Amino acid sequence: MSTLSVAGTTKEGIPILLLKEGTSQTKGRDAIRNNVEAAKLVAAILKPVLGPRGMDKMLVDSLGDVTITNDGATILKEMDVQHPAAKIMVEIAKTVDEEVGDGTTSSVIIAGAMLEKAEELLIKKGIHPTIIVDGYRKAMRMSIEILNKIAEDVNINDHAVLKDIAKTSMESKIVSVDSDVLADLAVKAILTVAEKADGANGDNYMVADLDNVKVQKKAGESMGESSLIEGIIVDKEITHSEMPKRIENARILLLNSGLEIEKTEFDAKISIDRPEQMKMFLEEETRMIKAMVDKIAAVKANVVFCQKGIDDIGLHYLTKANISAVRRVKESDLDALAKATGARVVTNIDDLSPDDLGYAQLVEEKKVELDKWVFVEKCRNPKAVSVLIRGGSQRIVDEAERSIHDALMVVKDVVQKPAIVVGGGSPEAYVAQRLREWAPSVSGREHFAILAFADAIESIPVTLIENAGMDTIDTITQIRSKQSATSLWMGVDVKEMKVTDMRKKNVIEPLAVKEQVLKSATEAAAMLLRIDDILAASPTPAAGQSSTK
């Protein structure tokens, strides 16, 4: 590492100032080694959490808040890493989490292994980084091709298969004991909100928007009490104590304006010099609000969700009309209610018609622990639903929320791309073996990178074996021989500590997850390997501190 404030001198001996004083530069292999070491450290942190036998991490932030999890994306997000190469590894996990939901830990482990193998090729064989990158990209494309050949097509209406996929995503979590209940909720939620769409080539396929599944959590009771609401949970209470708390066959009005007198957009003054004028002014306000309520009653609405405020006079007339109201509802909840009930969000009450109303078989205010929430249930053909998660403590509920997110995402992945592979490290071991057989046919030094890529993706079954406390060499050898002799789905059953056919164990994962893991890991490794120069500016002195000693 060298400083770059003086980059050289002229013939006359005058120094050339290129960058400001204190800027450091790391060049060539030192730069690559620096980045590789940082990435390997991040991967080493996540290795112990992979699989059902993986351990959890306790993360304590600067405010003392505690997070207990083994979700790769959550761990990296809470760690607040500072090294630029480590940040790229964090971005991989974030991308995989947002795109497919599962595989965050695997992507970081594979990327770390790819960089470790690349370092060996650089030092021992002197292969240029760009050749390694080209080899990795060829290997990645071939791996995806192999995965697509061995993947099994599934029927998206097969509830049992979708449930097994959701359960597999939760096997390594704290909530695995209750994975049966949570997986069932995830499958039902996604199948409820999934809709048909037309592809560019005229094909029909299903899409599911996770924004239409609202996950609400509350500590208390047990995780087995978690439930799916065919409608929306609004974390507000019915505004007036005299309004009905339970409404059957609800006709629902959604308002994004207020039931109150709006202020003018410009400054206005009213001169009142007689008591009669004051009385007339107040009576006119009352009449205007009553007219609004009368219009609502005229279309036979009996539940009103309002995004803005409701005047006390409005509450009085709504209560007299036996109409329940909830005010200051979030815009996102209002949109979800529209999708669930079939209502239209009304901006102007003057344009209100019966067609704007939505329907729910039941709207009820329920007490959940210390809070009162409004449950809009049993909607007709709802396109938005809610999942209510319960648990013994806030930590458990937080982890259950992360787990149900993963389960919802993997079910969505299969609904949108109905193809699966088996878990337990079997596809990675199979692909690695096929890559080793294919590598000699590739000319040039790229075939060394392809062999390194094969070793890197085999780090997934190796890590599963290590975390289970099994013998690494014996077990990986068994997997290779049994895959050649019997079934390609032979993998590591870490619970029974043996090599077995994981398809028969119903350990299955979406093909989309495996593809995204390989793509993200390869791109991250390629990005870091192509860096041969790091210019780092000196840190800015903190406020109140002098830059000189």
Description:
By secondary structure, this protein is an alpha+beta fold. Helices cover 45% and strands 19% of the residues. It has helices at 28-46, 72-79, 84-99, 104-124, 129-150, 159-170, 179-193, 275-298, 312-320, 331-341, 394-416, 426-438, 446-457, 459-468, 472-485, 511-529; strands spanning 2-3, 8-9, 15-16, 24-27, 57-60, 66-69, 152-153, 195-198, 204-207, 213-219, 227-229, 232-234, 246-255, 303-306, 324-326, 345-346, 358-368, 371-379, 385-391, 419-422, 490-493, 498-501, 508-510, 533-536. Strands 12, 13, 14, 15, 16, 17 and 18 form a seven-stranded mixed sheet that branches. Strands 1-4-24 form a three-stranded antiparallel sheet. Strands 7-20-23 form a three-stranded antiparallel sheet. The radius of gyration is 30 Å and the shape is globular.
Kindly state the number of beta strands.
24
Biggest beta-sheet profile: 7 strands, mixed
Structural class: alpha+beta
Radius of gyration (CA) equals 30 Å
The amount of helix comes to 40-55%
Strand percentage lies at 15-25%
The overall average pLDDT, rounded, is 86
Overall shape = globular
- Give the termini distance in whole angstroms: 22 Å
Note poorly predicted spans.
none
- The number of distinct helices, counting runs of at least 4 residues, comes to 16
